[in-house]
UniProtKB/TrEMBL annotation, chain A:
Tree of life domain: Eukaryota
Entries under SUPFAM superfamilies matching the protein: Winged helix' DNA-binding domain (SSF46785)
Signal peptide coordinates: none
Protein name, as recorded: Vacuolar protein-sorting-associated protein 25
UniProt-listed InterPro entries: ESCRT-II_cplx_Vps25-sub (IPR008570), ESCRT-II_cplx_Vps25-sub_N (IPR014041), WH-like_DNA-bd_sf (IPR036388), WH_DNA-bd_sf (IPR036390)
Similarity comment: family membership: Belongs to the VPS25 family.
Organism: Podospora fimiseda
Pfam families in the record: ESCRT-II
TrEMBL record, chain B:
Membrane topology: Peripheral membrane protein
Pfam families: EAP30
SUPFAM superfamilies the UniProt entry points to: Winged helix' DNA-binding domain
Similarity comment text for this entry: Belongs to the SNF8 family.
Subcellular location: Cytoplasm; Endosome membrane
Protein name: Vacuolar-sorting protein SNF8
Function: Component of the endosomal sorting complex required for transport II (ESCRT-II), which is required for multivesicular body (MVB) formation and sorting of endosomal cargo proteins into MVBs.
Any Gene Ontology CC annotation: ESCRT II complex
InterPro entries on file: ESCRT-2_cplx_Snf8, Snf8/Vps36, WH-like_DNA-bd_sf, WH_DNA-bd_sf
Origin species: Podospora fimiseda
TrEMBL record, chain C:
Annotated organism of origin: Podospora fimiseda
Primary localisation category: membrane
Residues spanning the signal sequence: none
Region (Disordered): 162-210
Name listed for the protein in its UniProt record: Charged multivesicular body protein 6
Amino acid sequence: MSSSPPPQPFKFPREHSFPPFFTPQTNLTTHHAQQTKWSSLVLSYCRHHRIFKLSLSDSLSQSDLFHNQQINRRLSPQHQRSIIDFLRKEGRAEYQKENGGDLVYIYWRTPEEWAGIIESWIEETAQKGQVLTVYELLEGENTRGSEFYGMDREVLIKALNVLVKRGKAQIFGQEDSLGVKFF
Amino acid sequence: MSRKAVGLAAFDRSRLTSASYASHGSSLKSSNASALETQLSVFRSLLQQFASTHSKDIRSNPKFRKEFARMCTAIGVDPLASSSSGGEGGGGSIWSQLLGRSVNDFYFGLAVRVVEVCGETRGENGGLIEVRKVGEIINKRGVDGGGGNVTEDDILRAVGTLKPLGSGFSVVKVGKKPYIRSVPKELNTDQSAVLEAVQVLGYVSVSMLMVNLKWARARAQTAVEDLVGEGMLWVDKQAEEEWEYWSPGFMLEVVEGEGGGE
Amino acid sequence: MGTSTSKITPQDQAILDLKTQRDKLHQYQKRIQSLTTRETEIAKQLLAQNDKPRALLALRRKKYQQSLLAQTDSQLEQLEKLVSSVEFALIQKDIVFGLQQGTKVLKEIHKEMGGIENVEKLMGETADAIAYQQEVSELIGGRISTHDEEEVEAELEALAAEVTGTGKTKTPAEELPSVPNTGFPSRQQEPARQEEQQAKVAERREALLT
């Protein structure tokens, strides 16, 4: 359904084949170092595959991110949650629903960063004062090749809302046919 | 002329001769000393000349650097020893005096990078890192001043320059390999033995220690747990039989194709 | 800060509606395209199973869908045209509005100038005033006597001489009596301040010598 997978496989860092990496370490400093490595790994993995939303249970059982088959090590659900929490504290993840749930937004670009990208795209293509549909931003011929082409709709709307707050855009229309006007 | 001197005058004469011997002796001594001094100063100036004409090589060529350092130590000059302990006035190490700082700066600069690497990796290795790994990381990032890689020898020397700062950086031997320890913690012999075993085997478990070192379970357990507590080992609880303990140095392996055993 | 209560005009809403229609057509096309490729696949499979009539049916369906696709294409084109002409009309509207404003301002300025007659009258008056002024200066010019004129010219000459540096210039050194003029012939043309300092130095030196 989503965009086609990139041609190159993701190159895992060395710690991903380090067996203890999949066991939460007991020493606090070590644990912190471990969490830092995990969160940067999750971010770069999602960036590589353009994953915007992660299903915790699915990714645990299916993806090669939390499960290294070669060394037969996988992350426990609790450990996975703690890594997501670590990311959340850095503003790099957000549960889709308040307090928990299975779906998590992974912000390898935060909505603020996306907002900046969209804003400069609007600027470059001289579309201030124009009305664009959300669909057009995501799949239009005009945005093909831009970084947000084919991105997650919900994350896009979050980014647009950032622009709304800054007074740079206004969202209007029906839920299924949202439009934005840029200022 | 074997004339026995008698009488009071004899005393006088013998005093005179002994005095003249003494003066002659001291003049000899001083002439020797001054000769030595000139020799030393000639040697110094030669060394200086050599160092300044080859300072580029010393900086960029690790082999050359090593040979130069060896030459210095062979003639009893510790090139990096701070003069404050050596008594020689003037400040700065002999290399800094001789070379107008450039070589000295090389080691101080390197020391800073070593400290950086130790600091960055302290979280994951508890402040104990193999010298070779430090070298790999530094070489991968590139040394400023261009050309040539740093050798383990250079790093050891650089760590030596940190000693006067009382910074708590020291070199310890675990097994046959030198490590840099950046937290002031003493390893007891059991811990060193465990680390050495990890070096050889890749990882250890309590029963492996019991078999290989003929330790009681409690002893092996304590040693391993202490090391985990210090952050020097990582525990893997998903191993099939029992918990395994790994060296975090594994994650730092920069070599592309499995570098592995040595 | 919710400063913008709503900057959305009815036109914006209309454009959005148009664009939404266009998006829907776009999606429809995508759907049909995937359908047609599937029909081809089905036809192939049926052929492989030797079910000719049903393969033919699939191909017919495909044909029909392709005709739909062509239709939507032209519709899409029309919509796109409409969108862009609406957008262009909006710009034109802005331009007309701008022109209107400009004309209005221009008119107001003209009004403030009080019409052509007023300007003509004003110009006449200006000409009168200039003529009068000329008359006055001629009168004054005539009054100045030849004697005065000579004096004025002499002053001009003196000024000119001072500027060019020739003729009898008053050296600043003369103002400092203790310095012999002849001692520093070359320095005379230097700026006064430097001259002054040098003079002082010379003065001191002389005092020491004597």
